[in-house]
Amino acid sequence: MDFNPEFGKSFGKLSELYDAVRPSYPKELFSKVIEFTNLSQSSKILEVGCGSGQATLPFAKLGCGITALDISANMITLARRKTSTFSNVEYVTFSFEAAILPSNYFDMIFSGTAFHWVDPAMAHIKVARLLKREGVLALFWYNFEQVGLNPPVASLFREYGYDSKTATGSKQYVLSEKQRIEDTLLFEPVEVHNFPVSLTYSKVDYLKFVSTFFWVSTMPFDQKRKFFTELEKLLILHDAVTFFYPVALLLTKKK
After folding, report:
1. Distance between CA atoms of 252 and 147, rounded to whole angstroms?
2. What is the CA radius of gyration of the chain?
3. Is there a domain that residue 74 lies in?
4. For residue 238, what pLDDT is reported?
5. CA-to-CA distance for 153 and 119, rounded, in angstroms?
6. pLDDT tens, 117-172?
7. Which end of the chain is more exposed for a tag (fewer CB within 10 A), N or C?
């Protein structure tokens, strides 16, 4: 996927819908990160792109000090609601690029399905500057490569501009991100972990789910209406939609 920071701003307009239909992450993923990082209540964590707080809450429960960044005030409102009983989370409405943060301070920096919105020219360099020595970088994404119900749906997605080869979370994307991290020579070799997830939505919720993809939400109105008309025709015989939607996790430590 080509880097375009403007696309990342589209989610704030869909914050309530995004929170309602986007899945949370598997518990096994958080267990792997916690084990790898050896987190404690004294740990300092930075979250890049907290969204509605789906990945914030599991770490907040550990008592760690969390600074959670997002460019959308609407998303942060939802995240605050999720973590309202935790005093250890500070939310900041800023991009990662623009945020002024202390160097050599954080024990972990993590990002769930958001780091691809950070400018790749500076992303990993800034991460390394902010992390303590042996601090952890944890990046994870749902694999948008397999959201199609069947070949006709996948074909329709491609017709409207979806490219599975460069989709975030795809094998190609994850391996490219791994290489970009290692090419900085600032991190240890990157571990790659995959977590199988199967999701089932009602047809109505599946259509809502698809509407939260940036390549759909940023379509011109007439094109979007045509896209959903064609998608609904392909789903006419389905009351529910089940599909494989795995999560990829990259883990590494600053040298």
Report:
1. 28
2. 18
3. yes
4. 86
5. 31
6. 899 999 999 999 999 999 999 999 998 655 556 788 888 988 988 876 667 778 88
7. C
